[in-house]
Structure formats: structure tokens, C-alpha cells
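A student in our group prepared the protein record below, which I am reviewing. I have pasted the whole thing underneath without changing anything:
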Amino acid sequence: MSTPHEDDDLAPTTTPGYKPTAVKSVDEYAQLDANDESLNRWKASLGIVPGAAAPATGPKLTMLTLELHSATLPPGKSIIINLSDTSHLDEIKKSPINIKEGVEYNVRITFQINHSIVTGLRYIQVVKRSGIKVDKLEQMLGSYGPSQTGEPYKKDFEPDESPSGMIARSGTYNVRSRVIDDDNIVYIDFEWAFKLTKEW
């Protein structure tokens, strides 16, 4: 169970004076300023065309995977957390992932937009060791409509370098991750863990 302070850590940053617009359906967006050519190009890039809306049933967004990529990973080795089946999320935090110390890596998330428009989507994670916050990441993902091809969306984060040294290798790092949009809809909130090791 999270405490109010932990939820504050996972709250998205806000821009003073910015207020998200009212939630609209795909068809409402398609009809909005229909004569504006540049707006129509932007809407088309999100798959917003009149009559193309999928039935609005179930969640707007489904998280599929969170992956770690590194050129230093041994051939054939992959680190993928399956998020499409939430029944095993409790097990994820009990089985820390091994991450090699001092290597460059990047995170990729994969998700599916099922219907409607999702605006201001962002990924937030807080890393703690022994209950003390050691890192926070907030990654803006953007705005999306349902994929015209049915293919999931993939977002690669900027490369980062894992810490190194004996102190960094001691203990387990606990991570809480959240995907949230401009309307403060939380699509997934889960915990996982990792350890820094000398080898993958």
C-alpha cells in the first residue's frame, strides 16, 4: 500500500497555467476545425479521421512491455517485463533483475492504444534503496490515437549509464513505475526491483 508521500513522488510535473482540454472522442476530434489543413495533418498522424473510431470499450491504453536494451548484453539475452498480464505483477518485485554495473543501456516501453485519444502520456519511475529515494525519471511519451495498422507503439528512452562500484552493488533497488496522462488517468502502476552486478 502506498503512502501519500510516495504518491507525491509519482505525481507528474505540471506547467503553471496549463489546463488540459475536456476529454473528447475520436470523432469529436475529427470534426474539430475540419477546415484547418495543418491541424488535419496532425490529426491524421494520430489516426484521427471521421468514422475511424473504434468502439469505446475497455481501457483506452494497454501496457505491453518494459524492456532494457544494451549493446553489452550477451547475444540472445533479453530483459523484458511483460505488463500485458497484470496477474503476475506481484511476483516481479520479488525477483530482482540483474543489471551490469557501469554500462550504457536504455529503456523501451511498448503499449497499445485501444480507442479514443490519449494526450500528454508520460512514464514516471521512482527508484529507492533501503527506503530512500535515489532517482526519479519522468519521460514524456506524447499524444496518441488508435494505431491505423494495429501495431503497438514503441518508445525508446534516452540512454543512461548504470552506477558502478562496491557500494552501488550492495543491496536491492526497488522501483515503482507509473504511466499517466494529462487527465491524470493512471494506466498502470507497478513495482519491480533490480540489483547491480559485475556481469549480466
About this structure: Residues 73 and 133 are 27 Å apart (CA to CA). The chain has two domains: 23-53, 54-197. The two ends are 31 Å apart (CA to CA). The chain has a mean pLDDT of 85.
